[in-house]
Amino acid sequence: MRIYLASSWRNEYHPEVLAALKVAGHEVYDYRNDGFMMDWPVEGANYEEMHTILMDAKSVQHFEADYDALDWAECIVMLMPSGRSAHLELGYGIGKSKITVILWTERDEPDLMHLMCDLVANEVDTVIDFLGQFTSISRDAWQRKQTLTK
Q1: Interval 9-63: pLDDT, tens
Q2: Sheet arrangement for strand 99-103
Q3: Is the peptide bond before 81 cis (omega within 30 degrees of 0)?
Q4: By CB neighbour count within 10 A (0-12 exposed, 13-18 middle, 19+ buried), where does 47 fall?
Q5: Which of 7, 64, 108, 139 might form a disulfide with 80, Cβ 3.0–4.6 angstroms?
Q6: Which phi and psi angles does 121 have, rounded to 5°?
Q7: pLDDT, tens only, 58-94
Q8: How many CA atoms lie within 13 A of 57 on its CB side?
Q9: Under CATH, which architecture does the 2-149 domain have?
Q10: Crossing angle of helices 47-55 and 57-72, rounded to 10°
């Protein structure tokens, strides 16, 4: 399955979850692969500074790569703790009827809108097991099956 792993670029669990998903046979987009976010100068920026940062050619290029990857992905996995971007990416996936998963850690704050997702889990193995069912059935068929079993 093609997965977009959304999380904060500061998330210490990102490399571990990325590796686990790949070992399980999934193709996973890694937005951190070019090191761009490590230099992201947004802390304390005012509106004018933020506008300049967002319109920078490198920012636009990275945005386009991430956006293309969101369209490419069949599933969005948001690894908590996450920031604003990851939540927007997850929301985009929900709006596009992609499979959506939250990998929640004990340090996180629950939110009612998490109920929009197909799965909220606290272990990567649970996510991998869940995603395994989609190798043989389509998302539409899975949704119909879930509706019929409720």
Answers
A1: 888 999 999 999 999 999 999 888 765 555 556 677 788 988 888 888 888 888 8
A2: 27-29, 2-6, 75-79, 99-103, 119-121
A3: yes
A4: exposed
A5: 108
A6: -130, 160
A7: 888 888 999 999 999 999 999 999 888 899 999 999 9
A8: 0
A9: 3-Layer(aba) Sandwich (3.40)
A10: 70
